[in-house]
Amino acid sequence: MRYRPLGKGSLTVSEISFGTWLTVGASVERTRATACVHAALDHGITLFDTANMYGAGGAERVLGEALRMSGRSRDQYLIATKVFNPVGDEPDRGLSAAQIVMQLDRSLERLGTDYIDLYQCHRYDKETPLEETLEALDRTVKSGKVRSIGLSEWPVEKIIAASDLTTANHWTPMTSSQPQYSLLWRKPEAAVFDACCEHGLGNIVYGPLAQGVLTGKYKPGQPPPADSRAANPKTNFTMETLGRKFRSDFLLAAVEQLNPIAADLGLTMTQLALAWVLRRVEVSSAIVGASRPEQLGDSVSGSGIALPEEALARIDAVLDAAVLR
Fold first, then answer.
1. With contact defined as beta carbons under 8 Å apart, do 137 and 131 qualify?
2. CB 185 within 8 A of CB 243
3. What residues are labeled active site?
4. 161 class by beta-carbon count within 10 Å (0-12 exposed, 13-18 middle, 19+ buried)
């Protein structure tokens, strides 16, 4: 495993990070989820990403318990969680100062920790003044409950505005952005990456395997494997709603053409997809999930691979019509 700085902040993160969305505290039972967390640690993963809303708080509880059970000291791993969306059926939501104070304490309690390494705004809050949100986040850092702050899927103009405001008011700056990014979803390349680079944010990208499509497990015209995300009614909905239909035959046929490219390089499809994401200097880490511990070995081996220019050109040629930019 290789490690990279997270923007201009003080955190250093593993190139592959472990995500809990849809799995930990939700579709994967507790014992197996715990085994996945422990396998991630054994593979050198240091960054664990979750959110207060995942599993209606269940993801934070199971993740925190698994990390404590691992026997690792608290300084051997980083916990990243998020605030904005409602937790389960609770009506509370948003990034007001009051919400940040309340939700932070609830996350700390569920995680069973005294501090969160990276506290992220899950989405931009149009109903709360940005100044109020940023000042409240600054207070969380000064309180010692949070080490660094970040954002997820914010419009580029709000990323810039947040940087300008934190600088002008001497508040804690944002150090990370969490956009969706993969071979098939390249929208951050248009403006987000440049803005983050200019303002000192590193990117922790989610969906680098495009909901599992880029592993090559799904074939056009064929039903999904029985043990896959697409075959599970608790998790398959995201494959049709997260910006595009990831299991369309058109898209799967394009992805199939990556197989010979990966084979020529001696790589699996997973390794190819993760190495492609990590080729960008703006990317600090790529988030992967797992429903079984053995899945993590292939993902982790995507760290430290340099793809030749000829392979990058071949990838662009076969995916051109399927890519969203």
1. no
2. yes
3. 54
4. middle
